[in-house]
Amino acid sequence: MPVRSDTFREGAVGVCHGPRCRDYGGSALAGLLQAQGFLCERIPCQSLCSYSPVARVNGIAVLRASMQKLAGTSV
């Protein structure tokens, strides 16, 4: 069952900026998303550190998020 969160604006991609996600590419991923024109928000630690970096699209967690994985979601 997907983990859900409604803490960010609809249509935004939330990128976890907890310490591990940030260190494992979360900051870079957020930068790439913004550079390509996506609405991107920094979200607090999602407690999914083993799967970092973590993003949320439409409230659903994308584990080990990358541009390739996000391209396959409904962003």
Automatic annotation (TrEMBL):
CDD domains to which the protein is assigned, alphabetical: TRX_Fd_family
Superkingdom, taxonomy of origin: Bacteria
Record's protein name: (2Fe-2S) ferredoxin domain-containing protein
Originating organism: Mariprofundus erugo
